[in-house]
TrEMBL record:
ATP binds at S26, G27, G28, V29, D30, S31, S32. The keyword Ligase applies. It comes from Zophobas morio. Pathway: Purine metabolism; GMP biosynthesis; GMP from XMP (L-Gln route): step 1/1. Gene3D superfamilies: 3.30.300.10, HUPs. Transmembrane segments: none annotated. InterPro entries: GMP_synth_C, GMPS_ATP_PPase_dom, NAD/GMP_synthase, Rossmann-like_a/b/a_fold. It comes from the Eukaryota. Pfam families: GMP_synt_C, NAD_synthase. Its EC number is 6.3.5.2. This is GMP synthase (glutamine-hydrolyzing). One of its GO terms (molecular function) is GMP synthase activity.
Amino acid sequence: MKNIVANMISDIKEKVGDQEVLLGLSGGVDSSVAAALISKAIGKKLQCIFVDTGLLRKDEGKKVLQAYEKDFDINIKMVDTQKRFFEKLKGLKDPEAKRKAIGHEFIEVFTDEAKLMSSAKFLAQGTIYPDVIESSSLGHTSKVIKSHHNVGGLPDDLNFELLEPLRTLFKDEVRKVGLELGLPHEMVYRHPFPGPGLGIRVIEEVTKEKCDILREADDIFINELYEANLYNDVSQAFVTLLPTKTVGVMGDNRTYEYVAAIRCVNTIDFMTATSTHLP
């Protein structure tokens, strides 16, 4: 693995040269490993942009910045674009349409930020092989499963050259690279979080109110897994918010609220999965 990582760093140096690179940092495994890898290759010529889309988990922005200030010596800037993303998602219900709208808006944000950098030529992403497979239709042998925002959402007139050093790797391989680079175990083995975030975990139309509800529900679920020492025994766990309401009782009062659905799976390659049997 040491030789593989050394070759990846060498390839990045050769491709980028003395140019600057923008990277969309989400705090997830893939973008974190990509950031560490590119930082090893070009140092301060990497500028990481953390975009607060309003579609993140509870306190995600604060946690990400704290983690990177502690463990990395890289340039990172946080950009609050919540209003922009909610405006773009208004009225959209189809998950593919939402993915592409979010991906396009990401590029718009990076383009705006790039204007502040004199020689930013590359846009780096934590794209991995399952992203590519699920977003592509290869002849008659495969179908588009879902367009990942970093694959299907990119415009044709992209003003950057893409830099995707993890594009041929599966999730387990990405994690091995992360450990070889010295990233903390809790960061490397954190459950994946989709690039479009809660935009696709809120089923149908996305609003700030729905995202706020989902943030709280998801936070409760993840904290319960930690409390029960189950978090590291499952591959991915999260909550989705369904586009329907149902009657319930809270205290002595009747309620009529959205339904939240718990999802929890185990997988090796993040291409196929089985449901987790939680106690």
